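Researcher: Re-running this chain for the archive, since the previous output was lost when a drive failed. Same request as before.
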Amino acid sequence: MSRDLARPLGTPPAPTRAEAVTAVVALGANLGDRAATLTAALEELRRLPLVDEVVASTPIESVAVTLEGPDEAEPAYLNAVALVRTRLAPSVLLGMLHAIEARHGRERRERWGARTLDLDLIAYGDVVSADERLLLPHPRAAERDFVLSPWLEIDPDAVLPGRGRVADLLARLGEAP
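Model: Regenerated structure tokens:
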């Protein structure tokens, strides 16, 4: 029986609490004090409303990737992955990630350019979205060892929705010529 049927007339319904979902967020920085920026961004993630827990990987360094491909002449990235247990809707979480980037001086001038902070929503539970404003899972996550390796560190059973086990995806990257 619905609880609303037992509620006296004229009283508002009790709020329903959304189930928490694990979102996968990739963090990267190649300008400024990269380690301090990632640490600060993780703390900001932990303080977001409706975020219950944030578990972060050990940061790793990677070569900058530009539109032309890997570029060792560019400053190297420091990358990490965070598992964010949240009740925020994916579009709201993405908006908050962009706000954190902006607070750290992120400017969106050049695609795949150098940046003070990059926060990518890689996955949000099992949600799949082809909406250009919210592509889930992230369309290039399966091709990025600097996302897959740190993710696997904190979740050995991780699965990228629609693509497969993260361990298998990472192994395939190691086989690439």
